[in-house]
Amino acid sequence: MLTLKQFMHIPDGILSAPILAGFGAASGLSVLYSARKAEASTQAHRIPLLGVLGAFVFAAQMVNFPVGPGASGHLLGGALLAATIGPWAASITMTAILLIQALVFQDGGVLALACNVFNMAILGVWVAWLPFQAISKAGHRRLGLFVGAFLSVLLSAVMALSQVAWSSGVMSQGLWIFCLGLFSITGAIEGAITLAAWEAIERLEGSAAKREQGNRVGAWILASSVVVMLAGVFFASNSPDVLEFFQHQSGITATASAYPALMPDYQWGQLDGEWVRKSAAGVAGLIGVFLVSLAISKLVPRGQQ
Amino acid sequence: MQLDPRCSLLLLLGYLIALASITPGHNLLLALMCLLPIALLLFSPVNKADLLAQAAYVLPFSFAIAAVALLRGNTAEAVFFLLRSYISILAVLIVTKLVSTLELLRAMERLGAPRFLIIVSEFLMRYLEVLRKEADSMRLAALCRGAAQSKLIAASSLGMLFVRSLERSTGIHNAMLARGFNGRLPRLFPMHWRLSDSLALCVGWAGIAALRWTI
Q1: Which residue has the higher pLDDT, A142 or A72?
Q2: Does the CB of B130 have a partner CB in chain A at under 8 Å?
Q3: Which of A46, A282, B64, B136 shows the greatest Cβ crowding within 10 Å of its Cβ?
Q4: What would the pLDDT profile of B32-48 be if each residue is shown by its tens digit?
């Protein structure tokens, strides 16, 4: 199965020369500057620390987090690194991770490293760091970390997909919307795992603040899903998506329309306005999926999930 | 003849750039470019079947792109993306089998990559296996306790791994100081660029350019 982590590591042979040249220049300059800043701000004892933390991110990816019935995810690490060692050192550590992944594990291309470094080590780290800093200053450190991790994964993946789309021209609007939904879910999972790891680190280091009341992470995942879903309604296209295109080509549509649909065309009932009908259908779908997941998690014994 | 790692790296980059510059629709040119890594594979002292199988690792990603191209009716484009990504990774695999990762990292340093980045990468390489084993032991211990599906245990394991990584890095730094670390890692085997490397680089780049731009 193709995981998002694999999808974010673009291999060689997919991207076009102009994209590689453009992002190569941007990544090269950014890494040179980040290395200079990280070296200037890093005491000698932090040199092994950065290497060992890079190895930690690799090892941490072996620890699976249960994220729902029968599903698990793992840490990607950019936001956690940015929050613990700062953005310059985190950029260099992430670049080192990507370099080793490309050379030793063939996870991402050597030439495509230009784009992978830009997406995950530069953009991924800074979009995690900036909201973390801003929201932490307002006194909501955990919220800042969650938002940072969510944006880090979402924007890195969107940028990777954009590079593939600009290079190959094979992406359709329907596929874009599907991928945005997928990336949002993965971003929310990364946020929840980063937050859980951060809290565990704080507890172990003896500086854990009083735990916040209620399950804020769950609430934020739900809130993010609603925001992404409502935004998706605005940007959704009336053109057929890939599956619909395939249905039309193969003649499946005629068979499929013989069955009554609960919410045809993703619209609910007789409400006024197309946007309201689509939003209502989206919220109903989201609540439905949540209730089904909840029921499965209660009914299926934990060991079988 | 053993080439300088810098020469091998520059030849690989030259080949990958030439390959990236081929646009979809030029499948014959792409097929001709495939001859270079295949010829190198035939004459290299590496396990050929293993490398050919290992190069398939990239196919899930490329299949996703090719499937979308296929759904839009561009069969030639789908074949192009599959072949180009497969042959690119094959070229990288051959070079990484012939030249060690440590040598490639040092070649990058000598070619202008930031020294700080290379030192961090070397440390990462060195402690990767150590921390992987540690994470594996913690995962096994959690399984033995029957806590494999607990979010709390997973978070605690990650936190513990982080704290152990911090402790280990402090220990490593102390050991380095005891050995007289002054901010630079000594290089035991300095690289020597010979005339044969210049010759191989010129001939290699000329061959790649001739194949790419004159056919």
Answers
A1: A142
A2: yes
A3: A282
A4: 899 999 999 998 888 88
Cα B74 off chain centre by: 31
Residues B102 and B20 in one domain: yes
Tokens encoding B138: 């913690």
Give pLDDT, residue A215.
44
- Pick the residue of B72, B162, B208 with the most A CBs within 10 A to test the interface with A by mutation: B162
Q: Which of B61, B116, B123 sits opposite A35 (nearest CB)?
A: B116
- Answer whether B55's CB lies under 8 Å from B89's CB: yes
Query: A164 Cβ partners below 8 Å, 6+ apart?
Result: A10, A14, A15, A170, A171, B65
Residue type present at position A100:
I
- For the record, the structure tokens of B82 come out as 């599959």
Please state the rounded mean pLDDT for residues A150-155.
Answer: 92
pLDDT band at A96 (very low <50, low <70, confident <90, very high): very high
Query: What is the CATH number for A116?
Result: 1.10.1760.20
Host domain of residue B97: 5-107+192-213
Which of B121, B149, B161, B179 is the best mutation test for A, with the most CBs of A within 10 A? B121
**Chain B stretch 86-125, residues whose beta carbon is closer than 8 A to a beta carbon of chain A:** 86-89, 92-93, 96, 101, 104-105, 114-117, 119-125
**Residues of chain A contacting residue B124, judged by C-beta atoms under 8 Å apart:** 51-52, 54-55, 58, 93, 96-97, 100
Q: pTM for this one?
A: 0.76
Q: Is residue A239 predicted with pLDDT exceeding 50?
A: no
Q: How many CB atoms lie within 10 A of CB A199?
A: 20
- A110 within some domain: yes
pLDDT in tens, A179-191: 888 888 888 888 8
Question: What's the pLDDT band for A259 if we cut at 50, 70, 90?
Answer: very low
Q: What is the mean pLDDT of residues A288-294?
A: 56
Q: How many CB atoms lie within 10 A of CB A283?
A: 15
A290 within a domain of the structure (yes/no): no
How far, in Å, CA of B87 to CA of B30, rounded? 9
ipTM of the complex: 0.88
